[in-house]
Design brief:
Elements lengths: L2 H8 L1 E5 L4 H13 L4 E5 L3 H13 L4 E5 L4 H9 L4 E4 L4 H10 L2 E4 L4 H9 L4 E5 L6 H11 L4 E5 L7 H6 L3 E6 L5 H5 L3 H16 L2 E8 L3 H15 L3 E3 L3 E4 L3 E4 L8 E7 L2 H10 L10 E2 L5 E5 L7 E7 L2
Parallel strand pairs: 1-2, 1-8, 2-3, 3-4, 4-5, 6-7, 7-8, 9-12, 13-16
Antiparallel strand pairs: 9-13, 10-11, 11-12, 14-15, 15-16
Helix pairs in contact: 2-3, 2-10, 4-5
């Protein structure tokens, strides 16, 4: 899997200040315990490269990058010490050419539309955009997505608040990044448990899980109509029939014949099924590959977990 795909599935990219190899491993473990599979280490000295190497040696599946290098020799060392990517603080021609020569993924900070256009001249389509100081972050991101539909963004937002759900919905936003994900105080004070809890809380905010509907398995069409009629008669939930089921409003789906789940199924809506599935897999949840369902645009729409809960099958569904 490519780095950009891994960053997209994770959705969050913490930028961490680490200057000790042993500490780097503990921070990486805390990040993984929180359900995240990537991080970027801010370059401070030669120990920064050693920290990347130590993490990659012990956790080769963890996606690890380095931030803030400023000369060609450091680009070479990033590659040598197994960094998966580098993040540049500017659109520097020398560093871009060096990264391309070293065949290491490079994501530069672009300040405006002209920077993005210049970046595309290099054949690169992944960049960093800093939203600090932007009065309407959603509108700004939407305008960039409209102007540059083939570009992917790593968003620096040190105060995302209620925007995490919005970012998660955007396929063009690979990840939300910044030092806020793993605060410096947490690192200095060795608050590993708090790091894990903070990451998990923010990942849940991005997924924004909600109950979508409950599915009831019926033996046949006649039984399904009786059940649907009862919900409409008692609660006023109007019926909407389709080939395989009858919906009462949007809350209850009455299946015309038995489907997955001994009793039926529970649908959980989320901003991005791709990201939610990847998050839950990192937490040890398995999915039924036979139930993957994509839209005509190639977006994952629904998927069932392998295990039932309370004799109900459970599936994720993308919220519109």
């Amino acid at each position: 899997m490519k780095n950009i795909e891994k960053l997209y599935e994770n959705g969050l990219l913490p930028i961490v200040n680490i200057d000790d190899e042993c500490e780097a491993l503990k921070i990486a473990e805390a990040i993984m315990d929180g359900g995240l599979g990537c991080l970027a280490i801010r370059f401070q000295n030669e120990q920064s490269f050693e920290s990347v190497a130590k993490i990659k040696e012990k956790y080769p599946n963890l996606t690890v990058g380095i931030v803030g290098i400023f000369d060609k020799e450091q680009v070479h060392k990033a590659k040598k010490y197994n960094s998966d990517f580098i993040m540049l603080s500017s659109l520097d021609d020398n560093l871009l050419n060096s990264a391309i020569d070293e065949e290491i993924d490079v994501y530069p900070l672009c300040c405006d539309e002209s920077d993005i256009s210049k970046l595309k001249e290099y054949g690169l389509k992944t960049l960093i955009i800093n939203l600090e100081g932007k009065s309407n972050k959603k509108t700004y991101i939407d305008s960039l997505r409209y102007l540059f539909s083939d570009v992917k963004f790593i968003v620096i937002d040190e105060n995302p608040k209620d925007n995490l759900s919005f970012y998660s919905k955007c396929k063009d936003v690979l990840a939300v990044s910044g030092t806020w994900v793993v605060p410096n105080d947490y690192v200095k004070n060795k608050q590993y448990k708090e790091i894990s809890e903070r990451i998990d809380k923010n990942l849940l905010s991005m997924c924004d899980f909600r109950l979508a509907h409950v599915g009831i398995n019926c033996e046949n069409l006649e039984q399904s109509k009786k059940v649907a009629n009862s919900f409409e008669k008692i609660f006023g939930f109007e019926q909407n029939e389709n080939p395989g089921s009858i919906f009462n409003a949007s809350y209850i789906e009455v299946l015309k014949m038995p489907f997955l789940g001994k009793k039926g199924h529970i649908a959980i809506s989320t901003n991005s099924v791709d990201r939610a599935k990847a998050y839950l897999e990192r937490k040890g949840i398995s999915f039924n590959a036979d139930t993957l369902n994509y839209t005509s645009e190639g977006i994952l729409q629904t998927v069932y977990t392998k295990d039932e809960i309370g004799e109900f099958a459970v599936h994720l569904v993308r919220r519109k």
